[in-house]
Amino acid sequence: MILALLFACVDDTADTSKAADSGDSGAPDTQETGDTGDYPGAEVNGVVTDPDGTPLPDFRVNVCRSLCMTARTGADGSYTLAGLSPEVASYYVQGDETLGYATPYAPITWVVDDVVTIDIQLLHLGDTEYTDGGPSYHVGDLAIAFADGDMADIYDDPITYVTATEAPEGSRPPLETSETVLAVYYLAPFEAHGSATIAPSLTWGLAAGSTVNAWYAAEPIESGWVHGGALTVDEAGTGYTGTATIEAFTTVMFTAP
How many other C-beta atoms can be found within 10 angstroms of the C-beta atom of residue 231? Predict the structure, then answer.
């Protein structure tokens, strides 16, 4: 048996420059800035590299809620964003799927006067399965099945593939949880919407009856980790009972209390 998680993905702001061009009033506004001036708020800085540790210039680092603040990485992969509002807002690097990178994405609580360093190692897109109109796919350690209708990206183009990229510790943004993190996956196409179920094939060695919590990273307009549901390892210790609901192809996190 395997765990099943119900997806109902929603429209969002995967590429804020595209969202601005589209005229979508539900998307956050984008303010691109390299200014590190004296504004009240938090600051985040760091370096963006590829999987081999090579700096990546001219990549966009975003912190989004009602407003997106954006910085581009320099020749050495470094970036700085200052004057971040004291709230929960979504941090992500536009890894550009056309270049083969998954999108690291996580909600983070920003505090006035805090200076936070986040070095991000972009990951190549993981196992990919081409949909070809079929109802279900096995993608790496995940099984995905469309529950009703086709999946579509934020511009309603038909989905032609699904990808799940596992993000190991050290290559992902900070995860605000007091629980033990079992696994984190970046899903693509980033911010696809529709309805689907997802099922890990792993129980991470947990005993029968153990609880696994499923979380998803909400869209930037909302931001925050949303609890999709609690699942229970079955008696055989090889799968789960129960379901959990998530709403976007962004980041999915599995934790143990």
Answer: 23
One domain, residues 149 and 160: yes
Do the Cβ atoms of 15 and 94 come closer than 8 Å?
yes
Tokens at 126, concatenated:
């993981």
**Domain housing 147:** 4-12+124-256
Same domain? For 32 and 44 the reply is yes
pLDDT digits (tens, 9 = 90+) for 39-52: 568 999 999 999 99
Q: Over the stretch 147-165, which tens digit does the pLDDT of each residue have?
A: 655 677 777 787 888 889 9
- Per 3-state DSSP, what percentage of the chain is helix, strand, and coil (rounded to 5)? 5, 45, 50
- Name the token pair of 248: 């976007």
Q: Among the three residues 121, 145, 165, which one is the final residue of a domain in this structure?
A: 121
Model-wide pTM > 0.85: no
Cβ–Cβ under 8 Å, residues 105 and 32: no
Measured at the alpha carbon of residue 121, what is the angle toward residues 119 and 126, in degrees to the nearest 5?
Answer: 150
Question: Which SS3 state, helix, strand or coil, does residue 135 take?
Answer: coil
Judged by DSSP in three states, 239 sits in coil
In this structure, the chain runs to a length of 257
Distance of CA 205 to the CA centre of its chain: 25
